[in-house]
Specification:
This protein has a three-stranded antiparallel beta sheet. By secondary structure, the chain is α+β, with helices and mostly antiparallel strands. The N and C termini lie far apart (about 50 Å). It has five helices and five strands; from the N terminus they run αββαααββαβ.
Length: about 140
């Protein structure tokens, strides 16, 4: 159990460190440096979009990962399939279906409900209306 707790603490520390470094990079402007806004995106341009849905049972998934990664566990090496993971973390089907209905009604095409995310294609015009925003073309110098 002691080894299990140590692994868990190391994983948490690593995730915290990654988050802190990412935040520091954003604060320092590393991801905004040398980008120039050119113009509004063409209204007819079709873009692929992926909407990640709020995941549930992430704590259960974390415990399962730690369990199957622990050589002392009876579940060691019993890896889960993608379907098992999605079934665990995906929101209720009614939630993802509401998102599908929303994007379809807004004018999206090629809609796929993947459980924990919904993918589709839509024109810039449709996306701007759907999310009440404006899209721009940017160029890295």
């Amino acid at each position: 159990r002691c080894v299990h707790n140590q692994k868990k603490e190391i994983m948490r520390f690593t995730l915290l460190l990654i988050f802190a470094l990412a935040l520091l990079a954003v604060v320092q402007g590393r991801y905004n440096r040398n980008w120039e806004q050119l113009h509004r995106a063409p209204a007819g341009r079709v873009l692929p979009i992926r909407l990640a849905l709020f995941q549930r049972n992430v704590d259960v998934l974390e415990q399962a990962v730690l369990d199957i990664s622990d050589p002392e566990s009876a579940n060691y090496g019993k890896w889960w399939s993608s379907k098992q993971i999605i079934d665990l973390v995906a929101p209720p089907k009614s939630v993802s279906q509401r998102v599908v209905n929303f994007v379809k009604h807004a004018g999206a095409t090629h809609i796929k409900n993947r459980g924990d995310f919904v993918s589709f294609e839509a024109s810039v015009e449709v996306i701007e209306a759907m999310f009440a925003t404006e899209l721009y073309v940017w160029q890295h110098e």
